[in-house]
Amino acid sequence: VSLGKTLHPMPMCFIRWHYGLCFMEILFHRSSLGTNCNGFQKAFVTQTNSPLETTIVYDCEKRTRTVTEDLFSNFPKDAPFSDKILDTCAVVGNGGILTNSSCGAAIDSAQFVIRCNLPPLGNGYSKHVGKKTDLVTANPSILKNKYGSLTGRRRAFVDYVSIYGDAYMFLPAFAYAFCTTLSMTTLYTLEDFRSSMKAVFMNPDYIRSLDKYWRAQGVKPGLRMSTGFMMVSLALEICNNVDVYGFWPFNNHPYGFQSLTHHYYDDVKPYESPHAMPAEFSHLIKLHNQGVLKLHVGECPPQ
Ligand SMILES: *[C@@H]1O[C@H](CO)[C@@H](O)[C@H](O)[C@H]1NC(C)=O
Q1: Does the beta carbon of 303 lie inside 6 Å of ligand 1?
Q2: How far apart are the first and last CA of the chain?
Q3: Of all protein residues, whose CA lies closest to atom 13 belonging to ligand 1?
Q4: Torsion angles phi and psi, residue 85, rounded to 5
Q5: H or E element, residue 98
Q6: Annotated active-site positions, please?
Q7: Whose CA is nearest to atom 10 of ligand 1?
Q8: What residue ranges define each of the domains in the chain, with the CATH number in brackets?
Q9: What is the value of pTM for the model shown?
Q10: What are the percentages of helix, strand and coil residues in the chain, rounded to 5?
Q11: For ligand 1, is residue 219 a contact (CB within 6 Å)?
Q12: What is the pLDDT of residues 130-175, one digit of tens each?
């Protein structure tokens, strides 16, 4: 893949926004995402969008769950952020492309930083991936495999997540039945250990509407859209300028052609992925070339 020819350095715009992105295209995507998916109100399960006695329909298996008092009391009253549009957001994937990128300072300069799947940030990584985190997703398989579903000692988990400060931990609580139990346990663990992190649950309604929206735009996200792509969609709604880092679903660097590890922190490939990363990625390239977001591959210029 020769990216130099694919990624446009400065897309054509009718009205150019600061940072070089295109104002009209950004507005178009924000308003159509807002109308069709409404991430501001719907991305997180809240007491407002999921009142008592209503039914939650899971997004990965045929299952429903009534919102009981017990469940309801764990939902935040309202969406964790107001509907004020932020200026800059960084969405950080975990691709090996971030290795040696020196993108840490650029990432940390964003007002709102979204990360995926509880990635490590220490160990000399911060120069390349930054430290700031406002929202981080947590895949149930990590909680299960690495932290024994938090049924045993939980201190190591709480200590580990202190690297994210007071960020929101975003859990797919209503994907499969086991995710609900696991997400509740995670929420209780964070509370019981007085972690500064707050657990929030992904709303399966939002995931369904995103899937429908992007399929209508011609994206074929495989069985299930990746969390990274969902986070890019959310950022497009809540932010004027979206910078995307760490997304590069290929084994070689686009400029230096050196081989890359699967993640910036390990080379563990998924056993069987339900996602279609290259299809999602080619859409990110399209959005980049339309001036809707900025995709960063390769090194970041010194700040
Ligand atoms: C990153 O830099 C180190 C040290 O210079 C080098 O050994 C390594 O091969 C580089 N990795 C990549 C993927 O560029």
Answers
A1: no
A2: 28
A3: 260
A4: -70, 130
A5: none
A6: 275
A7: 100
A8: 12-296 (3.90.1480.20)
A9: 0.94
A10: 40, 15, 45
A11: no
A12: 999 999 999 998 999 999 999 999 999 999 999 999 999 999 999 9
